[in-house]
Model the fold of this input.
Amino acid sequence: MTHKILKLAHLCVVLMMVVGVGSTIYAQDGSTRVVTEDQVNNIAKILYCPVCENITLDTCGTAACADWRYEIRLQLESGSTEAQIIEDFVRRFGDRVVGTPLDPTLRALSLLTPWIIIAAALVGGALMLAKKKRTPAPEIAAASAASNRYQDLFEQDVANS
Amino acid sequence: MLAEIGLIACLFAFVASLYAILASVYGERFAHSEAMVLSGRNAVYLTFVLMTIATGGLQIALMTEQYQLTYVWSVSSPSMPTFFRATALWGSQAGSLLFWSYLITVFAAAATFLNWKSQRRLMPYAIAYMMAVAAFFIGLSLFIENPFERWWVLPSGEVVASAFIPAGAVAPAARQLAESANGLNPLLRHFGMAIHPPMLYLGFIGFVIPFAFAMSALASGDLSSNWIKVSRRWTLVAWLFLSLGLLLGGRWAYDVLGWGGYWGWDPVENAAFLPWLIGTAYLHSVMIQEKRGMLKTWNMFLVIGTFSTVIFATFATRSGLVDSVHSFARSGIGFPMFLFWFLLTIVSVWLILWRRSRGELKDEHRVSGIFSRESLFVLNNFVFVALFVAVFWGSFGAPIVSELFMNTNITLGADYFLRVTPPLFILMYILMGIAPVSAWGISAVGRLGVSLLIPLALTVLSLGLFVLGGMTDAGALLGYGIVLLSGWVVVYETFRGVQARRKARNESPLRALAALATRSPRRYGGYMVHLGIAVIGLGVIGSTLFQQETQRTLAVGQSLQIGGYEMRYDGLLANQVAEDGRLMDIAQIVLLRDGAEVAHLRPRRDFFPESSGMNSMTIAGAHSTLENDFYVLLVNWETVSANSATFKVYINPLINLIWWGSFILIAGTLLAGYPRETLPARVREKLQLAREGART
Done:
């Protein structure tokens, strides 16, 4: 009985080892996954250098940016997705490293505010036009028509002279 | 000696500009003295002469290597070529501010000279406003960013910068100064930088003239069409220079900044784009005031808003308000500039509202049908202002609000602008397609539809060719369709005009076209500008949506394939020394298509050993065709050796249409601003008939 238990335990250990080795092999496969420079740049072009002025990581020539690109490569090699890498950078350096903030409040503020201002201006403009339509025609138009008549007469005079 | 001359000229120019303001306003408004007004006018010319001396002094100091001047020391060095020594005048804050002030006096003197007789009533006030702006900027040069400061060695051995000689100080040894001179920022050592900043400055500063005339109309109460006539042409001049500045800036970025693009939605780029948007809105809406006597208040807001934006953009760029690769170093001019901008805007808006409350800015007609030309122009204005809001918010609004109220530092990048602005640009192109065929007053939908039939057919035909060429992207086809329609409309309208003339006068097509252009330069110049914008639009869509990009490390003899091209790396010429002392690593590239060599490219990395800070540049190698640009960079953060090098390659489809469209736009603007006869057409025709009758 003890022997059987030992055999079972042994089998379990072997199974665990197989599973463990298997997972190790799987992880090693992940870490040695080939990552191209284009894959790195695809993410680097979305991220802005945290210390430079408005330069994306894919074009920044500083040593710090070279390190961050290398970090993107490492994260890709370890199996992180594009979204995970971007979130990681935002968590560490803040929303200034992305073109549009990820934070929901800041994102809404950034993307919706111009449209709210534009819509308000549109409504204001439409109301003003509607109000103008309700009021009688401006007297100045008549004056203008009169001045046009004088202009016509003047032009005729010039032509006849 | 040059420093003393420059400083004294600058000081006298400051005094003369203040005198011009006082003499003009006091002479016109209170003393009613023609002699005093004339003396104010002459002070404008004197300011111009004095600023010519001051700016000339600094330029000569740069050319003759007077390194005791701190400005010369900081932007030039003995190894710099003469050409860049000349352009170093605007290479840094102090010099560019002086140059900026000088250009204001050039514009002020030109506007005074050209409009003195025709706008006598407005001129004293216009002079006051122009010279107030000039005095402010000359004051900045004089008191905060003085380009005539010199290095001095104090008795204690300390080296200080001062415009005046400190007690007991001596000048440092000339050789020592020359050896330690900084040299110009490498990014500015490009031919484009010789033209791009002056064009941008001329564009910015040019708007001071329409602003001054608008303000003078408000101040004097002469709200007839006089100020509109003057300001429209000056706005066109400023708009032309600003357009040129923006386009040249795009070209410079494409050639020098090494990221394969021409517009990065950087806050400083956007700061120059903002006055362009408002100025363009004004150029359209001013036509409504001229033709229909409408939008008087709105036009005032636009013209003043344009200049207010110019000042804000200058403040943002030069104060360090925003982080940008284009920004000048942070300096003490931020607060005075902000104050100036604030006061200028408040006073202008107050004047408009005051005149409006007195009923002096009443419209003469109402907007009639929704498809009338004036309605479409109002919509066009709305689109430009909406674009202004979106770009302003992204560049300045959101970063400032988030920092002030949310304690978070954000910078909105291309991602934001490419989400928010495309619908507005689409609307702009749609209006560009419809407005030219609409009529003033009332325009029937049916008639409008008929006018659009042939351009629409031509657009569908063009899109068919795109599809046959292999394009299947529905979004891109829609974009191309809208842009093409706006282009075909003006081409067809011009064709109709030519046909009508040929029918009536039996002229050749070229002669008829020339006659149309000379008789109605505004209309056909405007059409050309629209055509240029349409061509630019095609280039923007192609290069944005279909750009291809790859980065690869190649061994010598190895190739990569992209966009139908094969690029072979043939070797590296390392550490080549240029005439100006810069070191160059030059890659030798052979470009092949279908197995045949099409070009030899030499992308390179330049290194400036003498420069502090940013001291390297990446210069692309490019092969341009009608179809696309093959654009290759020697990646500057990877090591290069005789064995291997890393390249970043872009295929930029249709990008050359942007530059060609620019030429059309410039030509159109020149035509639109061409002076035409002032007599109405009917009178001119009668005079012509009278002349013909007299001959027979």
The CA atoms of residues 48 and 56 of chain A lie 4 Å apart.
